[in-house]
Amino acid sequence: MKRHLDTKISQHFEKYKQVLVLLGSRQVGKTTMVKKIFPNGDYFLVDNEPVKKILESYDIETYKTLINENSREIIIDEIHLLDNPGRAIKIIYDQLENIKIIITGSSSFHIKNKTGESLAGRKIDYNIYPLTFSEYLSQKGIEKNLNFNIFKKIIDDKNSEDRLYKFDIKNILNSVLIYGQYPHLIKNSNDEKYLLNFVDSLIFKDILELNLIEDKKLAKDLLKLLAFQIGNLVNYTELAGSLKADQRTIKRYIEIFEQSFILFRLYPYSKNKRDEILKAAKIFFYDTGVRNALIGDFSDLESRADKGALFENFIISELIKQDSYSDRNYKFYYWRTKQGSEIDVVLEKGSELFGVEVKYKRKAVNVAFKNRYPEAKVKLITADNFY
After folding, report:
1. 193 pLDDT exceeds 90?
2. Which superfamily, per CATH, for 6-127?
3. Which helix (H) or strand (E) holds 371?
4. 132, 185, 211, 249: which one has the fewest Cβ atoms less than 10 Å from its Cβ?
């Protein structure tokens, strides 16, 4: 099962001696990847109580009872469950020479909070996300090689005209927009029960275990509200009022969801023009299946009022995943004026500027952004030309 990150992960220790940290949501394929790439590594699961107890001793002699003296590679899975992950890894890294350390975690919020200082200069992070569209096609056996077609369509001046495919791309796209791209769905298509269970329990497992939220009901209600609002401007005051909670809690919970790889925010692109929106963020989910499970709607795409919003969410999350995997390092925004002119996603890097309109069906391109920023290249991405 090929993933875009395979090469980077497999070559990590050829380039670096630092700890390899693989971060991503639950069930996104972290364990599968590290076990495939490091088949001889000694594997320790922190969710196993005896392992957790030894690692939380923070004592090198105790660690030696767990780690074989001949070990060349060790994999510590679900590191975020330790009370102080950074301290444990620092002890191993500093006191056991010539050992390659691979760690995985589901909550970057917790890992970064607790390891930042003690692992400074000792770790390199990699993020893994739900499957890209190319990974999905590859794992389904539809296409052989992985690609960054969606991303390249925009930044490499590839032709954005409609094209013919040897497979039913519309049907596959519709399935992805409804059920998402978690690896489980490759062999278990349209598994609504899995997705409902995922958002009901697994999605909160780390957050609750790590005591990051005090009110599970508030968190679930907030996530559901946000799921109804994908692609819309987030009004924290309105959310707080609807949920009878204070704004600080709402903002903190959204940050936790973001750090746990559930959702992300896009902020407005502006050069401080008077009529441009300057602050309000938009919310998107890393996976459309998770989003649909949160609102309890897996109905057919053609009958949905949110078809356009789902397609927009899909394209923007694909761009972010592909940018991350290909090390392009673009910054992502949206653009909107107070009069309502809008570009769905803006990509910027140095002097490069791209405005992308994302519409399920073809329409005329908004010229307002190009008029405002003549240096920008503006693209229209639709369900007919996105791949």
Report:
1. yes
2. P-loop containing nucleotide triphosphate hydrolases (3.40.50.300)
3. helix 368-372
4. 211
Integer Cα distance of 127 and 325 in angstroms: 8
Tokens found for residue 216: 């599970």
CB 233 within 8 Å of CB 270: no
Q: Does the global pTM surpass 0.90?
A: yes
Q: State how far the Cα of 327 lies from the Cα of 40, in Å rounded to an integer.
A: 28
Q: Rounded CA gap, 206 and 46, in Å? A: 12
- Taking the C-alpha atoms of residue 30 and residue 55, their distance in angstroms, rounded to an integer, is 20
Q: Which amino acid belongs to residue 167? A: F
Q: Quick one: how far is CA 182 from the chain centroid?
A: 11
Dmax (CA) for the chain in angstroms is 68
pLDDT tens, residue by residue, 118-138: 788 899 999 999 999 999 999
Listing DSSP states for 152-183 in one string gives HHHHT----S----SS-HHHHHHHHHHH---T
What does the pLDDT read at residue 116?
A: 66
Query: For the chain, what are the domain ranges?
Result: 6-127, 133-381
